[in-house]
Every structure is written in structure tokens, then in C-alpha cells.
Amino acid sequence: MRTLLLLLVSLLLLSVVYQPSSGLDKDLVAYFRFNHCDGRDASGMGSYARFVGGVGCWCGVEDEGVQFDGRTGHLVFEGPINNYFTTSDLTISFYLKPEAHTAFLESLLGKRESCGEEFALDLFHNFNRQEITTIFQESEFKYFKDLSPALPDGRWFHVALVRQGIYARTYINGKLVRESRRCSGVDISNTAPLSFSDSPCITAGRARRFKGVLDELRIYDRALTDEEIEALYLLIPIENIQMDCVS
């Protein structure tokens, strides 16, 4: 009886200690938590986010996030993170807290050389349309259309973009909102660095810098499934975020 009891206790301890991998670290090529108010890459892959201009720290979804002043603040990403925006599958995930009510598009994450129509990935917060305006295109006639997801009411949002072969999908708060398909792939290769709040469309007068908070930015070198996107969001659901941060 004592032996059986010890065996049961051992099994219970093993069940508590052993946590099967969720798979959410597989092919994670960049992970910026921003908890130390810097741009270190927690994935260990060696990328870095350089803070430029009016960038500070404020309460994020978990510890600190990056706060942008809407005037000069932006991030420029350096290192291997810039090698994954080509024709291959990828996933982008981040949390966003917009703070400006503006008629202009606000620049979010992007990688493009100019404000033209070639080889561009560019995301914007669109307050007027209450959406994340999403540009994912190779040329004027080769792009993923109708990819911009509508935003629900709220202060914080989890945004995800997935490219899987000839498909592209956008998600808000863990749920699929838009899906676009092309009969051939879309090449977004270019020499510009990945950036946040620094789209070339700002210089062209078509957008403004973002005012608000960014947190928990992840880049994957694969297409996460619908179930994985939901699981990623449920790690920090928006209802668990402290909304009235004062310090």
C-alpha cells in the first residue's frame, strides 16, 4: 500500500513538473518582449530593435511595453530578422494600444523602400475605418487584397498576420478576420530594414507616426495555424491586461 501511494505521488509530481511544449517557440526567429525597456531579441537569434526619437516605456500587456509619442518615435530592426520577408511563409504577432484619434493613417510595422506599389509590407492603424490597413504586395497588380481586419471596441488589440503559400490571413484577438488568396505567391523582398512607426509613406505625406504602445512582438519563419494563433493570444488575453496603468 505504501509503495502504491509513493508511486501515485511520484506520478502526480511528474504531471505538475512536466509541461508539454505548446509548439509556439518553433521557428520563432525574433521575439521582442520590451520588458527591460530595450530592444533585445529574446529568441536568441541575434536581432535588435533600435529606439529612435520619442520612444519610451510604459505599462504593456505584461510588464513594460514601448510607448511612441506620435511625432518622432520609431523603431528600426537590425540583424537576421530582415531576412525573412521574401516569398516564404511567415507569421507576425504583436499587441497594440492606439492612443491618437486622427484622420491620418498611423504607421505600424512595415518593410518597404518607398511609398510606391512594389515589394511592400506595411501595416497602419486606421482610426477612421477602425481597422488595421494591411498592404502586402509585390506590384500594382500582384498583391493580397481585402486583407485589412476590422477592429472591435477596446483599448488593447492582439494583431496577427500569417502568410502561407498563396494565402494570407489576418487575425484580431486570436480570431481569423480576413483571408486572401492569390494563384501565385507574392514576393515582398526588399533592402529596407523592418521598422515600426517609420513607413516611407510618412515622408510622402500619406501617414503619420504611431502614438500609443507596442508590446510582445513575435516573428515566425512559418505559418501558424488558426489554433496556434488563438493559443498565442490566450497566453495574454486582453481581458487580463491592466487597462488603467499609472506607473
Point out poorly predicted stretches: 1-21
Shape from CA axes? globular
Question: Order of helices and strands, N to C?
Answer: HEEEEEEEEEEEEEEHEEH
Whole-angstrom Rg: 20 Å
Strand content: 35-45%
How many E strands? 16
Q: Give the terminus-to-terminus CA distance.
A: 56 Å
Give the number of helices. 3
The proportion of residues forming helix, as a percent range, comes to: 10-25%
Largest beta-sheet characterization: 8 strands, antiparallel
Average residue pLDDT: 91
What's the CATH C level?
Mainly Beta
CATH topology: Jelly Rolls
CATH architecture classification name = Sandwich
Structural class: mainly beta
Query: How many domain modules?
Result: 1
Could you give the topology of this structure?
Elements: H1 2-17, E1 28-32, E2 48-52, E3 55-59, E4 64-69, E5 74-78, E6 90-98, E7 105-111, E8 120-126, E9 131-139, E10 142-143, E11 157-164, E12 167-172, E13 175-181, E14 195-196, H2 200-203, E15 207-209, E16 211-220, H3 226-235
Parallel strand pairs: 7-15
Antiparallel strand pairs: 1-16, 2-5, 3-4, 4-16, 5-14, 6-11, 6-16, 7-8, 7-14, 8-9, 9-10, 11-12, 12-13
